[in-house]
Write a structure and sequence with these properties.
Radius of gyration: 26 Å
CATH architecture of the largest domain: 3-Layer(aba) Sandwich
Helix content: 25-40%
Number of helices: 14
Structural class: alpha+beta
CATH topology of the largest domain: Rossmann fold
Number of domains: 2
Mean pLDDT: 89
Strand content: 15-25%
CATH superfamily of the largest domain: SGNH hydrolase
Low-confidence stretches: 30-36, 38-70
Oligomer: single chain
Length: 467
């Protein structure tokens, strides 16, 4: 008797079911999965649209990452000694639009910072609230294909590019941005800004005996010639006035050999400059030993930051022995150098994000040594009178990258390390909110101090008025 069920289609369906199911349970096959069964519930949980709704607006709202559920004590800056007060004081002057009140933030980070992820969002939030004083630091070229800053692009040729991570310059001089660019006549870079309005361009370079010359142009018009020849080797900055309508800038070597580091873009107005200084694949030892200490101190002094953010740890978390031995020493040396250079600046140690890893059963957990590294960072921050922001806990703690990978929209790439733009925006929002929480608490503290002093001043005035 012939079966009422078509055998071949049933076998095909069964085979397909096995293909999409087995990789979920066999760890060695997990990377070959084509469907996440954990997402089945969200498919079955269908919610029909109400009559008259706007499908486009509803879909945009559904895909918008929401960080509101992450706001809690772990998402605040730990600062028991008021280490951030100098930064908050500068921010208050900027908010009051005092003449020349520019608040500058240097954010040192690893690969996400290299692509201006997280930092671009914080920059936008701060400049929207306090004013845009310029984009800040941008490298002469792209040492890595994914080097990018929001609103800026560059085309370049003829440069020998040496990041501090590779330690190819024996003298350890890599500028503020951690990359040395050496070029002879013909080497050039053309930098394009999405928005006009900048008033000054600053070129950072190494002055040295026999240094060559560089031509600076804005929208094709010469604005100056830089002579890098100096009797002694020194870190130098040279500023040029530029037309506010200019959006394209060319830096070209016209004579001899030069060694440049970066350019900066500034606006002649109170506001925020947020420098995103990312080094791909970096770790604490790069700032502590690959960078020439005296040279980096000199560069920090020229920058005059109000806040320095040290945001490392992702790459270190893969090496437990380093975390337990050399890492604390490297961090202490970084902090010593920053405090020597700019003792008046605030320092914020910012932990890495969660770093995901496949567990034996195929689930995405957290790299085992990362919580230990974050704990070491928190301790070092307190010991060295620095503030600390626990990014790892603020974004959700252990297993966050696993949840982010399964989210819709997906918030992290398949390496469970690098956030996608929506995930980066969540972390940027968390950091901005933490900075603003601390700033508002600072202003409230100033207000209480003023109110407490007022009665005493009033009583003293009455006493002096008596005959």
């Amino acid at each position: 008797m012939k079966s009422p069920w078509p055998l071949k289609p049933l076998l095909a369906l069964a085979s397909f079911g096995l293909m999409i199911t087995l990789p979920q349970y066999i760890p060695q096959w997990y990377n070959w999965r084509i469907y996440e069964w954990a997402a089945a519930a969200s498919i079955l949980d269908f919610q029909p649209r109400s009559h008259g709704s706007n499908p486009m607006e509803e879909e945009m709202e559904r895909l918008k990452p929401d960080a509101s559920h992450l706001r809690r004590d772990e998402a605040r800056i730990v600062d028991p000694t008021g280490a951030m007060d100098e930064f908050y004081a500068a921010l208050l002057r900027t908010e009051r639009q005092q003449s020349g009140a520019v608040t500058r933030i240097l954010h040192y980070g690893d690969s996400p910072t290299t692509a201006d992820l997280i930092t671009a969002d914080v920059r936008n939030f701060l400049q929207t609230r306090f004013g845009d004083a310029g984009h800040g630091t941008y490298l002469i070229g792209k040492p890595w294909a994914w080097y990018a800053h929001r609103g800026v692009d560059v085309s370049f040729q003829g440069w020998q590019m040496d990041p501090a991570t590779l330690k190819k310059q024996p003298d350890g001089r890599y500028g503020l941005g951690g990359v040395s660019f050496i070029g002879s006549a013909g080497a050039s870079s053309t930098i394009k800004l999405k928005r006009p309005g900048h008033t000054h361009l600053v070129v950072s370079y190494l002055g040295q005996p026999g240094g060559g010359q560089v031509q600076i142009q804005a929208n094709g018009i010469d604005v100056g010639t830089l002579d890098t020849n100096m009797p002694q080797v020194a870190a130098v900055e040279q500023a040029y006035e530029i037309p506010t309508e200019a959006q394209e800038f060319t830096i070209r070597v016209i004579q001899g050999k030069v060694r440049l580091f970066d350019v900066e873009f500034h606006r002649n107005t109170p506001g925020i400059v947020y420098d995103s200084i990312g080094l791909n694949g970096t770790w604490a030892g790069v700032l502590a030993s690959h960078m020439n200490g005296d040279h980096w101190i000199e560069e920090l002094r020229l920058a005059k930051p109000n806040l320095v953010i040290i945001n490392y740890g992702t790459n270190e978390s893969g090496y437990r022995n380093y975390v337990e031995t050399s890492y604390p020493k490297d961090v202490r040396e970084i902090l010593r150098r920053v405090k020597t250079a700019v003792p008046e600046a605030s320092i914020l140690m910012m932990s890495p994000m969660d770093r995901g890893a496949r567990e034996a059963g195929g689930a995405i957990g957290t790299v085992a040594s990362l919580p230990q590294l974050v704990s070491v960072q928190a301790k070092l921050a307190i010991e060295n009178n620095c503030a600390f922001f626990n990014t790892f806990q603020a974004m959700g703690g252990p297993g966050t990258m696993g949840r982010w990978y399964m989210a819709e929209p997906r918030l992290v790439s398949a390496d469970f390390i690098h956030p996608l733009p929506a995930g980066a925006r969540i972390v940027g929002t968390l950091l901005y909110d933490a900075l603003m929480d601390g700033y508002n608490s600072y202003k409230q503290r100033l207000l209480r101090q003023t109110m407490a002093a007022a009665p005493a001043d009033k009583s003293r005035g009455k006493a002096e008025a008596k005959p």
